[in-house]
Amino acid sequence: MNVVAPDPDADTFQLLPAIDVRGGRVVRLRQGDYAQETRYDDAPLVLARRYAEAGAGWLHLVDLDAARAGGYTLAPLLAQLTRTTGLRVQTGGGVRDERDVATLLEAGATRVVIGSVAVREPALVAGWLRRFGPERITVALDARQDATGRWQLPTAGWTRDSDSALEPLLLHYVDAGLRHLLCTDIARDGMLAGPNLELYTQLQAIAPRVQLQASGGIRDVADIVATRDAGCAAAILGKALLDGRFALGEALPEERPC
C-alpha cells in the first residue's frame, strides 16, 4: 500500500478549475451531451498555466474521449502539467483498472477520479481505496434524477444508464473508507443554472465525514460561497470560468477554512 501524508489543505474549502479535453482541445459539454460541445481557443497547457499564474493550487483535468470509450490518453499532458505549472492535478476519464490508476499517479496526478467503474464494480474500487489510500482516489458519483425522484448513476461519460442508485452506493464507499466524493447533478452541468444545494445538503447528511466536491451549474462567486456554506469541501469551476463570467482571482479569496 502507498502511504500518503494527509492533505494539509483538507480543512480548507478548495476551488478546482476544470479543463475538459476532447480531441486535444478544451471543450465543455451541455449536460454531458457529446453532440452539444463548446470549443475554446486555448490549448490545455496554456489554460492550465494561466490558472496557475492566477493563483490556483488545483486543477481538475478530464479526458472526455476516454470517459466514453475507455483508455486514458492524457498522461503526457498530465506529466507536463505537473512538471511545469506546480498545480496539483485531480484527473480522470477512462480509468478502468488498477494499472490505469497507478499510471496516472506515476505521471504526477495527486488524485485519480474513478467514475464508471465505481458504479459498475464497487467491490473492485473499494479495493483500490485500500491499495492506494483514500487521499489518492476521488469517486465520482454523477447523478441524474428520474421521474420518481430517484438519483440514478449513468456511466461511460454519462451515455449509458445503470441500475445503481446514489445513496446505497455512497454508503458502500463510506464503509470502504472513502475520503473524496465528486458529485455532479448532470441536468445542471454546463447549464449555468446554479448548483444543486439541496442534493449536496442531502449527501452531507448521509456521509458527513466525506469531503464533497460540488460540480455543475456554478454561475458566479455567490454560487461558490453557497456551495461552501452548504458544507462542500470543494467546487469544480467549469463553463462560467471559461466564459469569463468571473475571474479566478475573484473566486480564490473564498478558499478559506470550512
Short description:
This protein is an alpha/beta fold and 258 residues long. The chain is built from eleven helices and twelve strands.
User: What is the typical, i.e. mean, pLDDT?
Assistant: 92
User: Strand count, sense and closure of the main sheet?
Assistant: 8 strands, parallel, barrel
- According to CATH, the homologous superfamily is Aldolase class I
Count, helices: 11
Low-confidence stretches: none
- Portion in beta strands: 15-25%
| CATH hierarchy, class | Alpha Beta
How much helix is in the residues?
25-40%
Order of helices and strands: EEEHEHHEHEHHEEEHEHEHEHH
The first-to-last residue Cα distance is: 30 Å
Number of spatially distinct domains: 1
Tally the beta strands.
12
Structural class assignment: alpha/beta
Q: Under CATH, the topology is which?
A: TIM Barrel
Shape: globular
Q: Which architecture would the CATH scheme give at its second level? A: Alpha-Beta Barrel
Order of neighbouring strands in the sheet with most strands: 1-4-5-6-7-10-11-12
